[in-house]
TrEMBL record:
Protein name in UniProt: Uncharacterized protein
Disordered: annotated segments: 376-406
Keywords for this protein: Membrane, Transmembrane, Transmembrane helix
Membrane-crossing segments per the record: 20-36, 57-75, 87-105, 117-146, 188-208, 215-238, 258-281, 301-319, 325-348
Basic and acidic residues biased stretches: 380-392
Top-level division of the source organism's lineage: Eukaryota
Amino acid sequence: MDPPSRPLPPIHHLNLELILIPPILLAIATALSLFTHSDTDLYMLYSQCHSHARIGWLSRVPLFGPLVCFLVSFFQEALLSPVRSKGIMSVILSYVAGLLTITTVESSRICNQSAFFLAFPTATWLIFDLVGGALVWEIVIIPAFFHRTKLVILARRQGTTTSEGEEAAEPELILGAPRHLSTLAESISIPVSIAIGYILPSLLILLLPSDKTTVPILVWLFFPVWVSFLHQGVRTALLHVFRDHPTWPRPFHLETSLLPLVLTYAAPILLSLASHIYLIVTLFTHPHDDRKEMTLATTRFIMVNMVFVGLTVLYWAFIEAGWQTALVMLVVTVLAGPGAGVCVGWIWRESAVGVDWIGRRFGPRAAVIAVAVGGTGSRRGSDGERDGERGQEGGNGPSEETPLLR
């Protein structure tokens, strides 16, 4: 029987150079928009820090003191109005929580372990948070994912050996369970690290009075470091405690394991929904914008950045998983906020294309590989040989719900 017709996502048939044109154009548009929306008040804010007129104990720190003072003062001003700016910033912070969750999940995929920028996202997140903003997503993060995806597709087409019979450079891309997380401990270490390292500081800067947020904002600015340390520490501790447990050391597929899936994505989705509702309510109950001039300048600058990040992530979803995934992300964003949109879209994205589908597209050799990759019972662990045998016997062969490599 002929398989159902499903269109290939654009990443499969477009050259990488062509795919990268829109992010470059978005980067140019971002730079122009940020320049247009720059305000003299922002330059004066840095001037005050440089002259030690603001947060003296911080601005006097050698070398980086004035810059860090400016960043802290910038976010203090952005949170200064008690209604409108708090509502806007709560939505933005919950969106960042969603983005942080999906990139941390991707860093833990087996297929991304040898890709430095994907497996270790701390540096790129620090640059995004402290300096680069949306430009980091458009020039660094998204191109790195696109490049990795192209390598995955090429590896899947070629199989385990090259045309000369040499062993493939990265067999983990096509053997075993490459879209699985490395261990079940990730389903706890990821949400715990994000909750403590990012969400807790974010709640503090939202809820505390503006004159008491200097230290919380300073701590929050370096959230990629805290999230990374906590992620590695909690995972190592769990693997040590449960090292003799038959399930914990094994890879597992997050999106087909209900409880780990809920644990991983619950916090950013709920925070996004709550902040989305709060912003809508304040727009109706407080129609007058209570932001002063400096707060308007800072929140406008942040909003422009995040709008371009959102457009870039939406393009990312479309290129790698097709228009349906991008549409799901967009609809959920409208209904429950961008943080929920990116998380739900990412869950949908994982099941948008099945491994057996790529097997049908790439021929018999890829179909055999698809059985090895997709014939895993993620709820029972994922031993490569045993699962491959199951797939050949037909007991647990790949289906339309079998997750595909990115």
